[in-house]
Design goal:
129 residues, 5 helices, six-stranded mixed beta sheet, alpha/beta
C-alpha cells in the first residue's frame, strides 16, 4: 500500500500510463468533456474537492512540460489564474480553443470545483529531460 500522496487507484493508473507529450486535464465541475475522452470524476459535491489540492497532488506524481488555461480565468477567477501562472506558467488561450483541445486528452480529472474556469490542460514530460 502507498503511504502518502494519491491513493485513488484509477487516477494513479492513468497518471502512470502517461508518456512524453501525452495531454491530460484537471477540470472544474462544469467543463464539457467530448464523448470518448475518459473522465476520472473525483467530485463529491459542488466545491469539493477543490481544484487546487487535486492539482497539487497530481503535480507530485507527474512531470509536465507545458500547461494551458482559458484566457477567461484572468477575469472570472483571479485566484485560479494566479495558481496557473505561479505553479505552471500556463499559457492562457481562447476558451473555445481550450475546450477543443480537451478532445486530444488521454483523460480528464474532474474535481468538484464550483468556481469558473478552474481548468488546466497539461502535457506530460519525461522526468530526465
Amino acid at each position: 500500500m502507498r503511504t502518502s500522496g494519491l491513493i485513488h487507484a484509477e487516477l494513479l493508473a492513468a497518471l502512470t500510463a502517461l508518456r512524453h507529450t501525452d495531454l491530460f486535464a484537471v477540470s472544474d465541475s462544469g467543463l464539457p468533456t467530448p464523448v470518448g475522452v475518459p473522465v476520472i470524476d473525483l467530485g463529491i459535491s459542488y466545491g469539493f474537492p477543490r481544484f487546487e489540492p487535486i492539482l497539487d497532488l497530481i503535480l507530485e506524481e507527474v512531470t509536465v512540460e507545458a500547461a494551458w488555461g482559458s484566457r477567461a480565468v484572468a477575469e472570472q477567477n483571479p485566484e485560479a489564474a494566479a495558481l496557473l501562472s505561479r505553479r505552471l506558467n500556463a499559457e492562457l488561450i481562447d476558451h473555445d480553443d481550450f475546450k477543443q483541445r480537451i478532445g486530444a486528452c488521454r483523460f480528464v480529472v474532474r474535481t468538484g470545483e464550483a468556481r469558473p474556469y478552474a481548468n488546466v490542460l497539461l502535457r506530460a514530460r519525461v522526468p530526465w529531460l
